[in-house]
Design a protein that fits this description.
By secondary structure, the protein is mainly alpha-helical. The chain has six helices and no strands. Helix 1 crosses helix 3, helix 3 crosses helix 4 and helix 4 packs across helix 5.
């Protein structure tokens, strides 16, 4: 296994598909965001699911997909792999926490409401994290720098 979540995610994507390999950024903008708030065993799964979220709704750290179709497919691929990693690290309860997170964030996006960062913090705590307030503030600031919100809901 690779030494960092970024390397692991990228290596697996390269092995999985030439399309995912071609979508990798030449220079990654990697920084952990919400995995720092959860127990270490969830790091790879949580960062994989978060990268999926960024592919769908923000500025990904590892990927630059070409076009809407590739963006959707790549995000879904990353969600699936992240959930497998979460299941391996924490079982059914951990997957349920992530499913609730994904559902909550999709609902927020559909209505144009804010609060997705707080949903990620809640999910990290549901996985057993007990972060210091300063760590939560750093994670939320990093998240806000990567997500995009439209002014209108279509």
């Amino acid at each position: 296994m690779s030494s960092s979540p970024a390397e692991s995610i990228a290596e697996e994507a390269r092995r999985e598909s030439p399309l995912w390999a071609s979508a990798l950024r030449d220079v990654p903008e990697w920084e952990p965001v919400f995995s720092t708030l959860a127990p270490p065993r969830f790091e790879l799964g949580l960062e994989t699911v978060y990268e999926a979220y960024l592919v769908h709704y923000g500025r990904p750290r590892l990927f630059e997909p070409d076009g809407e179709t590739e963006r959707i497919l790549l995000g879904d691929y990353l969600y699936a792999h992240g959930l497998v990693r979460i299941a391996d690290a924490g079982g059914v309860d951990a997957v349920a926490a992530m499913a609730e997170l994904i559902s909550r964030c999709a609902a927020l996006r559909a209505t144009g409401e804010r609060g997705d960062g707080e949903a990620w913090v809640h999910a990290a705590c549901s996985l057993g994290g007990r972060p210091e307030p300063s760590a939560v503030e750093r994670a939320l600031a990093r998240h806000l720098a990567r997500v995009e919100w439209s002014k209108e809901v279509e």
